[in-house]
């Protein structure tokens, strides 16, 4: 049994069969149903060690509780690495900036890496705080583990789109994977137009999200437009389709709007990973079999930079 309903209408998919020969087809069928349906699903037996998650979250929490001026020493640079203060992100169409703050990492590349030498944007080393030395090893361990889960999942996604299981692998040689620990302040009950994260679709290919037990993530139901909760289910990650996979698949898979409202009365933490391909990865619906492409070809990097320019205040300065 790979496919069951959770305690809401979002499916829960067990990834165990991905590790045995012949197990992928059933998982791929469940993924196809989820990605052509709600655009969101949970995965269990995802292979990311609970201790790795807990260690990363504890280190990130220690960082977020530092004074603002200390955190500002590692404020996000032009390659998006470091601390993004509350108020620095505005989702498209939102009235107010998001209430969240977050700490963002990517593939840690030295100055002499070919992609850095070639001047690719968003490439280079991570930007770690001296004040929390355990943050780097803890988040790097999570980054590696969630990346391995992303790669495994994409093999099943490829099958679910009728492609060769290794279709995505050549486009993930130096992935633009971004992993961010997110910290949400509690919202006042009478705060009716503030959001931890305002309604948005994710920019990239697929997102893998761990959330703590606070709740607050809501997903827009396709048919009704209603906001349905995606509550924390122990031992799971939430996975969703981003705009880039929507575009690549010529809208066979669609990215679904979601938002976070933290009504728990205390801080909420999550860690989101946008598991995206190489900067230069060609994103052309025809490569996935479309004969009537809805979109011209682009590259992953161009697409992500375009969305970053709209969303993040720090990219608008200077
Ligand atoms: O924290 C969450 O539950 C969701 C975060 C999110 O949607 C995002 O960072 O894109
Ligand atoms: Fe999101």
TrEMBL record:
Name of the protein in its database record: 2-oxoglutarate-dependent ethylene/succinate-forming enzyme
GO biological process: ethylene biosynthetic process
Record pathway: Alkene biosynthesis; ethylene biosynthesis via 2-oxoglutarate
EC number(s) from the headed UniProt entry: 1.13.12.19, 1.14.20.7
Cofactor field: Fe(2+)
Family membership: Belongs to the iron/ascorbate-dependent oxidoreductase family.
Known catalytic reactions: 2-oxoglutarate + O2 + 2 H(+) = ethene + 3 CO2 + H2O; L-arginine + 2-oxoglutarate + O2 = guanidine + L-glutamate 5-semialdehyde + succinate + CO2
Enzyme class of the recorded protein, top EC level: oxidoreductase
Fe2OG dioxygenase domain segment(s): 175-277
Domain of life: Bacteria
InterPro entries linked: DIOX_N, IPNS-like_FE2OG_OXY, IPNS-like_sf, Iron_ascorbate_oxido_reductase, Oxoglu/Fe-dep_dioxygenase_dom
UniProt key word Heme: no
Gene Ontology molecular function terms on file: 2-oxoglutarate oxygenase/decarboxylase (ethylene-forming) activity; metal ion binding
Keywords: Ethylene biosynthesis, Iron, Metal-binding, Oxidoreductase
Recorded coiled-coil stretches: none
